[in-house]
Design goal:
2 copies of one chain form a homodimer.
Chain A: E1 3-11, H1 15-26, E2 31-35, H2 41-46, H3 48-65, H4 77-87, H5 97-102, E3 105-109, E4 112-114, E5 119-122, E6 125-135, E7 139-141, H6 157-162, E8 169-173, H7 177-188, E9 192-197, H8 208-220, E10 224-227, E11 231-237, E12 239-244, E13 249-252, E14 254-257, E15 261-263, E16 295-297, H9 308-322, E17 338-340, E18 345-350, H10 353-358, E19 363-369, E20 386-392, E21 397-405, H11 412-420, H12 425-430, H13 441-449
Helix pairs in contact in A: 1-9, 3-4, 3-7, 7-8
Chain lengths: ~450, ~450
């Protein structure tokens, strides 16, 4: 048993923890980061990165088919999977370590648990924090107590992003982001995909047109979608059998449980400082756990916004707070910028129209076709896509934006700057989109509003 | 001879004139628009639109080759040219007319010339404007007095964008936007391209790294580039022979004169109101010709910014000014947003570093690799590309941005909003780019600045 002292100890080396530790290290703090699995976390190995490696060739193949002169053949699943393996470095995290080393961050391999104020146990070793402990333990897949589900060895995000071949038939339970992205990926890679979602529409937090267009896109790709239906039991006997509450049953070779995430707060010693595990570790606007001047939580574990970029953002803010700056999180929660990498893609930031109305904001929405302009002759031609701004009519600023369509992922940041920067409509009117790019959708939207 | 009265008469139905007329028509004005050639103008038929039809399949083929799993073959030049013909509607402008009709704009076919205050002659007909005349006569290719050039029947933008087949050898004189885009297009479509530019680098108004990367891209595509060299004489005898001032000579099947544009101000009756033709028709901040309360000029003819989107922007502003609003042009001149559709593409807005320093601004530039982030694993992987922000260190706002790389055209608008909206750096810091998109280049740039 050894005891070592640092300025800051970060528990969990996923994206949020890494960014926080790296930023503190860059600023001269002595930092330890504790990780019992892969440095880089779920995002690098079992979520964002491998899923995009699977999805990018699909959207690009679809887009190439829309552009005469490009000679494009069928997707090559073996090459897609090989590139995916390259992206996740065959689940070897040594490539992630130099980034920490360059910032002077000490990597401590093992499971970290709190052991009273400013103390973290890793096996028999004790790490003591002079300034702060940052909990960045992330989340794990939620597998609800549907009879037989856990015993049926369901896929979670881990298997869904790292499987070595496409199952013949894949039943997906859950029509949120993971559900729709994996339906897109595996149907294109050769699986017959059946998607079961208890809600009345997919990706329910997004605008209704986004749900509809994503469902249409999946159906065109051969995905069978069942809405308003829940699984009542699951069994595996060679094949997986899923019984539904409408009386039907589905048979698959694999079943993916895509019900969401649960925060990793059990078994990390929260009880040693008088906190309870199980739920989210709630934080205030500076990412600090209320009542503790030395305890922070960033990323999925605090439940604010389960998105890698928001975890990283929180990591930066927490680092600055620990360094004594006044910080306050601004982009947050359901209004965080977000992209769903289906085809069409969905990029959104801020309020949906419904959410703004629920919050009582004086808003008006304007919609245009994403490719309904000269730039759309060249990108996303003929593909489904809608761009919506939700505008606060009193303040004359954009409070929400959703853009769907082919390859909209890089178009979202303009909206993010407009929403977060609260750029007045009259300034946006002078921000002239270049011709002929599809960003002229901004012009069309402002004209639709009456400018 | 007939005489007809309108509220506003617009001379020239290119993009700038159309937008101005359409906006006035939408707001209840009686508007006539006069055009002796194609409604839609150079941009629709001989510039932006056909050039992008030629270029998009090239960049997309290159990008598809970077994404394992996409099966892509060689470019199909016949299909590219057929699609280009579709985009320019085989030079038939009837498809452009309904847009004017829906806005109640009267299209008058013929050459319009001023005939004293508020009067426009079209053949024998007289149009009288109750409120204003808007000159939107555009520009034409500049063919400098190089001995033999005019007689050698050089290509201009017209032939370069509408040719029915790739010449075996194409000599391009001029390394500005038209020169580099057409070098990219025709070399990919099968021509051996030789590009001669008298300056020390291509696209000289842009950042030096942009010039270098575009030159490298062209050279990789087989283009032979000669810098710091001028043509001294040209002759055609079956083939075209171009003599250069370094003593060398080039032989081609065609020669493209890409020296820039001259405003169309001759023969439009400016002398009838006491103005001179030949040069630009200068305007003030509300697009009005100084000294005339009824005369406006929008688009290339006023020389402010020879870009379709800026002409359209000016058209909107002029319409609003005619309707009695106070307007002042804000995005303008060399600092206008702009995209060059080579591979790599160049997107830029506001100042280059050199231009800001020349203007005495207290600036600092930060650079990152465009695809040097997680999103770059999927878009523009391994391709050249640099993102630069030019930041006013006193005001802490971005005054210029240049992004080069694969498919950056839709990424520029975020920078345009940041620059035109003068969004404070501290707000940009909270505008979180989504992971894993390449827009994380914003994060890297702000970190490089020290945020």
């Amino acid at each position: 048993m050894s005891e070592r002292e640092f300025d800051v100890i970060v528990i969990g080396a996923g994206a949020a923890g890494e960014v926080c530790a790296g930023r503190l290290g860059e600023r001269g703090q002595a930092v330890a980061i504790v990780e019992d699995r892969l440095v880089g976390g779920e995002c690098s190995f079992f979520a964002c990165m491998p899923s995009k490696a699977l999805l990018r060739p699909i959207e690009l193949t679809n887009e190439a088919r829309r552009v005469p002169g490009v000679t494009v053949g069928d997707l090559d699943p073996a090459a897609v999977l090989a590139r995916r393996d390259e992206v996740i470095a065959n689940l070897d995290d040594t490539g992630q370590v130099p980034w920490l080393e360059q910032r002077g961050v000490a990597l401590v391999r093992g499971r970290g648990r709190l052991d009273g104020e400013r103390r973290v146990l890793v096996g028999d070793d004790v790490l003591v924090a002079r300034r702060a402990v940052v909990v960045a333990t992330g989340s794990s897949p939620l597998v609800p107590p549907i009879p037989g589900l856990a015993d049926a060895r369901p896929w979670t995000n881990i298997e869904a992003t790292t499987a070595q071949s496409a199952p013949g038939r894949l039943v997906i339970l859950g029509g949120g982001v993971v559900g729709v992205e994996m339906a897109q990926a595996w149907s294109a890679l050769g699986s017959r995909v059946m998607l079961v979602h208890r809600g009345s529409r997919l990706i329910e937090r997004e605008e209704e047109f986004a749900s509809r267009q994503v469902a249409d896109g999946l159906r065109e790709g051969g995905v069978e979608i069942r809405l308003g239906v829940s699984a009542t039991s699951v069994s595996r006997n060679g094949v997986v059998r899923v019984s539904l509450d409408d009386g039907a049953a589905l048979e698959g070779d694999e079943v993916l449980a895509a019900f969401g995430r649960r925060p990793t707060t059990d078994g990390i010693g929260l009880e040693t400082v008088g906190l309870e595990g199980g739920g989210h570790l709630r934080v205030d606007e500076s990412l600090r756990v209320p009542g503790f001047d030395w305890l922070y939580a960033v990323g999925d574990v605090n439940g604010r916004a389960l998105l890698t970029h928001m975890g990283k953002y929180q990591g930066r803010l927490a680092a600055d707070a620990i360094l004594g700056q006044q910080v306050a999180i601004r982009s947050d929660g359901a209004r965080s910028p977000r992209v769903i990498f289906t085809d069409p893609q969905v990029g959104a930031v801020g309020y949906t129209l419904a959410a703004a109305e629920t919050d009582g904001l004086p808003v008006r929405a304007v919609d245009v076709e994403t490719s309904g302009n000269a730039g759309g002759s060249f990108i996303g031609r003929g593909a489904a896509g809608t761009a919506r701004l939700v505008i606060d009519v009193n303040r004359r600023v954009v409070v929400g934006a959703t853009i769907t369509g082919s390859e909209v992922q890089e178009a979202l940041h303009a909206a993010t700057i407009a929403v977060v920067g609260e750029v007045p409509l009259d300034d946006l009117w002078h921000a002239v989109p270049s011709f002929p790019t599809r960003s002229e959708l901004w012009l069309r939207l402002l004209e639709a509003y009456g400018l």
